[in-house]
Amino acid sequence: MTFEPRDLSLLETLDHLLDRGVVISGEAVISIADVDLLYLGLNVILTNVDALVERGALERKRHE
Amino acid sequence: MSERLMLVGAHLRAADAAVDGVTSIDASPLTLSAVAFPASLHSSDRKLIGRTLEARQKLIEREIFVAIRYGAAADTPDQARQLALPFVARWNELLERHRGKIELTLKLAPRERPTRPRRQDAASGRDYLEQLQRMRAEALSSGERETIERRFAEFEKRWCQRSDGGSELALLTSRTDLERVRKAGEALRQELPDLPFVLSGPWPLEVFAND
Description:
By secondary structure, chain A is of the alpha+beta class. Chain A has helices at 5-19, 49-63; strands at 28-32, 35-40.
């Protein structure tokens, strides 16, 4: 599948908004086509498992 | 009609957050940026997400800031300050250190459908996740990884793994170095023409905000 540069940029920007940056507190709903798929109520960490594993490894390094 | 505040970022100077469509909140010594929205609106509202995206883009044109992940909303400026309070000292140090810089992302798509370890082979949930992480990390050959690191040797770097099996290299560099990063990307594309990647930015402190 190919994307027009504008679409690629929008997807990339959205990816950064939803999956990057510091998690402090809040709530988030991931929705596609106006259908709420996943509600995360707070203080959870909104991230993927890989990121959690990576953070765990970093924490272990800091304590070694 | 009551409003809520969707937090966008933390900024070293108030002027850095002074852009149209953005509410500034004093969180001395920092300033928080937020997008005000009707309390009746849910955070999944498409227009609210669009307004937040737009605010983020305008803010990064000004100066680097610490990106707050979408979803952190407050009822009042005081509540926003309370949410940010535990982080302010560390963010202040980061922003002082990285002023004038930007983050960029080199996103490498997985070539094959990501595979997962067999659950039965894992001694525990943690063991499973660590096996999964190793498997994903191996998706990029060591030769490719070395080539990428050589091409971007002059920039600060952090490798990240994505849940889709792809890898990502976050770069931190001076705002004036954008052209050099772009040229490094072009050189990488010539050296590894079969490697699918997207180089994008400028971004605020996202990966490096966790230092």
